[in-house]
Write a structure and sequence with these properties.
4-stranded mixed β-sheet; 55% helix; alpha+beta
Length: 139
């Protein structure tokens, strides 16, 4: 059954999978990939700097200070579940709002020189956080 389901899911999430392949190739080329594992039917790519979920490709990095080591992994897995739910609409329904919140958080830090505490309190980040914590239980 998995052999049949995997290609169907790959094409259901094709736009984000296509971007995931590109990002993975780039991350490998610049030497930022630390480790790749297959868990929960997804490729978990531990890298140096980015946290983004693109279909079957879950990019995450270890936060050094002030957070649990796998915090970003859980959160990005939550976005992977959202990708599974929305399929080809994911980049618009989840990706754009998520990108906007991340961009705002970066600007906030650059202007105020402190972390924006509201990042996980709004759509779609709070939902991704809840999904990731509920369904990723390997920690």
């Amino acid at each position: 059954m998995k052999i049949i389901l995997l290609p169907i899911l790959f094409f259901w999430e094709f736009p984000q999978n296509f971007l995931g392949i590109i990002v993975l190739a780039f991350e490998i080329a610049i030497g930022h990939v630390n480790k790749i594992e297959i868990k929960r039917g997804r490729l978990f790519i531990e890298n140096k700097k980015i946290g983004i979920s693109l279909g079957h490709f879950v990019f995450w990095f270890r936060v050094k200070y002030g957070a649990r080591p796998d915090e970003i992994k859980f959160h990005e897995f939550g976005h992977a579940i959202q990708s599974l739910m929305f399929g080809p609409l994911y980049l618009f329904v989840i990706g754009v709002p998520s990108f906007c919140r991340a961009f705002f958080a970066i600007l906030f830090f650059k202007i105020k020189n402190k972390k924006w505490n509201g990042y996980l309190h709004g759509y779609p980040e709070n939902w991704a956080e809840n999904l990731g914590r509920k369904y990723y239980k390997d920690a």
